[in-house]
Amino acid sequence: MPVITCIDDLKQIYQRRVPRMFYDYAETGSWTEQTFRENTSDFDQIRLRQRVAVDMQGRSTATKMIGQDVSMPVALAPVGLTGMQHADGEIKAARAAEKFGVPFTLSTMSICSIEDVAANTTKPFWFQLYVMRDEEFVGNLIQRAKDAKCSAMVLTLDLQILGQRHKDLKNGLSAPPKLTPSTIANLMTKWSWGLEMMSTKRRFFGNIVGHAKGVKNAASLSDWTAEQFDPRLDWDKVKKLKEQWGGPLILKGILDAEDARMALDVGADAIVVSNHGGRQLDGALSSIRALSSIVDAVGDQIEVHLDSGIRSGQDVLKAMAMGAKGTYIGRAFVYGLGAMGQKGVTSALEVIHKELDTTMALCGRKHVEDLDRDILLIPKDFEGNWQ
Ligand SMILES: Cc1cc2nc3c(=O)[nH]c(=O)nc-3n(C[C@H](O)[C@H](O)[C@H](O)COP(=O)(O)O)c2cc1C
């Protein structure tokens, strides 16, 4: 077992182990990738205030997200095709999250189905919904998430149409991969991934195949998904979906204070300040830069979470100190999963936990609730001067 000291160690193993098509799928942003890059580089601009001679005993990273106990304020974000990064990937990631005491969010576009993840875990997980044109299918998905006892629904609002990622088009991304001369050449160098993938039956979108009308096989599936994301999604529809679901609701993909107020009006329990990891609107602000204006607008009335760009416990600490009440990691756990399956996701969580705990201590804080802007050094124009 290699010694893993940071998320980047996992990323390097992940890159060696997983077929190029799926590595590129994760490690890319839309168009010029400006927002994708700035999601991480903007975190780097914020510095920490070192404090000394503070009694550090009895520290804890434990807190709550939407009233649920978490061992640290870091959930696993919904990631489509997780089961292509590693065989049975969603089940493996969910199990690692469950053991670690953090929420796992299952994507609509997962390989393992809602029922399959529920049957292979012991604690409730969160379900992420993409709104599709087929209302009966969406209604059934919500019912299936209820039946599986999912403890929150994460409704994604920033993907009514798909941002363009050049590499996915060039690679002909599909699940399972189409066998062309170049994918075959690449797959031949990824034999451990291939052997594990051959030992599982979970190789298609498990929430869709057999559940959506007219989708019987991989070929019909790709046509179906391409035309299914519903461009009509609006706030009235969000209200209806909230009623249909009836449980805790998290609205994901908010990047603007006005939208945050709308989310508050529809009665959501939390919002996720997110630009989808830089995969949708290229040129949008990084999440960490957008956070303060949203916290100022609604932070005392609704729980504000953040994702996009988190690669370390220091990043988690910065987001929490700027007013977030929870964070999510996407790629950071995917690197771990692709590198080493369940162990790799655990390893990613351990790395981030250790970094968060140590950084908290060196900033002179013992509890997540004590994190505030006082421990940060933020460049003067970090959040301002946009017109
Ligand atoms: C490979 C990949 C697939 C994703 N699939 C989904 C998805 O199915 N649903 C969703 O709401 N967000 C999806 N996202 C966005 C993540 O939930 C999250 O917002 C993003 O990964 C956070 O940025 P980070 O990867 O820098 O942590 C995906 C992100 C990645 C990297």
UniProtKB/TrEMBL annotation:
This is Alpha-hydroxy-acid oxidizing protein. The keyword Oxidoreductase applies. Keywords: Flavoprotein, FMN, Oxidoreductase. InterPro entries: Aldolase_TIM (IPR013785), Alpha-hydoxy_acid_DH_FMN (IPR012133), FMN-dep_DH (IPR000262), FMN_HAD (IPR037396), FMN_hydac_DH_AS (IPR008259). Residues 1-381 form the FMN hydroxy acid dehydrogenase domain. CDD domains: alpha_hydroxyacid_oxid_FMN. Its cofactor is FMN. It comes from the Bacteria. PANTHER family: 2-HYDROXYACID OXIDASE 1, S -2-HYDROXY-ACID OXIDASE-RELATED. Belongs to the FMN-dependent alpha-hydroxy acid dehydrogenase family.
